[in-house]
């Protein structure tokens, strides 16, 4: 969060501090919140009253203050008041889930979008329908008449520029698509904020959060790389925030050139990491023809995996070559971004038993000279759910950053922003 510049910013920052503490440590008393945040007790009283008024926090009982003194009223995050809906756009289907600020998954579904390559309109219609279905299903099952939909987050496979326009998606055939504008035009009643984000960045954000939750460590710079079917994606998280770069291309590790004389890449360059470690490249290197398999190469990946487990020499050599390319790419990432942690996801996680030892072997010379400069390499925790969970977490974080975005309960006359 940036430094506050005026009274309104100070108020937002302080509300955020209080809400985050209650979410992480509740049930807790106001005195505990004051001690943890450094805010004076009078401010805590006013801030918690505002959070209670917006339905973000509620009182859940009393705790003894000791032999003397009044019992302390305990506060905790109110379940179900604020919701986030996330949609992951894939080549032929949508994945959708909804959560509250506590992280509980309240609804989940997937369905085809039937879009032709290059045409975003069926995707837009399908997103509008699935968001409406999610909201209505939650209202029916949870009786959330006073619920507030804080944000819809749409994660797409492709570069997303600063104004959240999909600059380019090879998988979908989109170029300069204002997805948010199309969604607004499709259903003007959707008035809540809509975020359009890169799907690999959301996976990185989720894996970063899972690492922090599991270990308590908070890396300043965190890198995530994954191989899924035909491509390599990834993301960078710095100081807890996803970095997208000036053109939406930060974290595109698959297109780091590891050999300028290497194979031609679809991006127009040569020798990119994906031309050595992408599934099509691995199949070719192992003596397999990608055209013999389904377009998404699921069967090809399964056959490569079977041969690898069986000890096929050509398959092992192909992955060793990919490991050397990965070591070169990680060296470049380390020298530019200097991540403390690198997490390998997707197929990279499945093959980590072969990949990581070979990567470390190629990095051994540099590690011997500067052992503390190299990142720790591990595998993902969340698997295929990473993108959707990251998008949900991203939506919730916008509320934690600015609790004033949630209206006071008494001012909500109808269930939040969707019909």
Automatic annotation (TrEMBL):
Q: Which Pfam families match?
A: ROK
Q: Superkingdom of the source?
A: Bacteria
Q: Which PROSITE patterns match?
A: ROK
What family does the database annotate? Belongs to the ROK (NagC/XylR) family.
Q: What is this protein called?
A: ROK family protein
Provide the species name.
Actinospica acidithermotolerans
